[in-house]
Amino acid sequence: MKPLKLLVVGGVAGGASFAARARRLCEDAEITVIERGPDVSFANCGLPYHIGGEIATRDVLAVQTPASLNDLLKLDVRTHCEAIDIDRRGLRLQVRNTATGECEWLPYDKLMLSPGASPLRPPLPGIDDPRIFTLRNLQDMDRIIAAADAGMRAVIIGAGFIGLEMAEQLQRRGMKVQLVELMPQVIPPLDAPMTALLDSELRRNGVEVFLGDGIRAFRPGDSHVGCELNSGAVLDADLVILSIGVKPDSDLARKAGLELGARGHIVVDAFQRTSDANIYAAGDVVETQDRVVPGRTAVPMGGPANRQGRVAADHIFLGDKARPYPGSIGTGIVRAFDVVAGITGWSEKRLRALQYPFASVTVNDSHHASYYPGAKPMTLKIVWDARTGRLLGAQATGFEGIDKRLDVLSTAIAAHMTVEDLCHLELAYAPPFGSAKDIINLAGFAACNRRDGLVKHTETLPTDPAVQIVDVRGKPLADAYPAPATVLNIPFATLRANLGKLDKNRPVVTLCAFGKMSYFAARVLAQNGFDVSSFSGGLKANVDPRSPGKLPTA
Amino acid sequence: MKPLKLLVVGGVAGGASFAARARRLCEDAEITVIERGPDVSFANCGLPYHIGGEIATRDVLAVQTPASLNDLLKLDVRTHCEAIDIDRRGLRLQVRNTATGECEWLPYDKLMLSPGASPLRPPLPGIDDPRIFTLRNLQDMDRIIAAADAGMRAVIIGAGFIGLEMAEQLQRRGMKVQLVELMPQVIPPLDAPMTALLDSELRRNGVEVFLGDGIRAFRPGDSHVGCELNSGAVLDADLVILSIGVKPDSDLARKAGLELGARGHIVVDAFQRTSDANIYAAGDVVETQDRVVPGRTAVPMGGPANRQGRVAADHIFLGDKARPYPGSIGTGIVRAFDVVAGITGWSEKRLRALQYPFASVTVNDSHHASYYPGAKPMTLKIVWDARTGRLLGAQATGFEGIDKRLDVLSTAIAAHMTVEDLCHLELAYAPPFGSAKDIINLAGFAACNRRDGLVKHTETLPTDPAVQIVDVRGKPLADAYPAPATVLNIPFATLRANLGKLDKNRPVVTLCAFGKMSYFAARVLAQNGFDVSSFSGGLKANVDPRSPGKLPTA
Question: What number is the ipTM of this complex?
Answer without folding.
Answer: 0.96
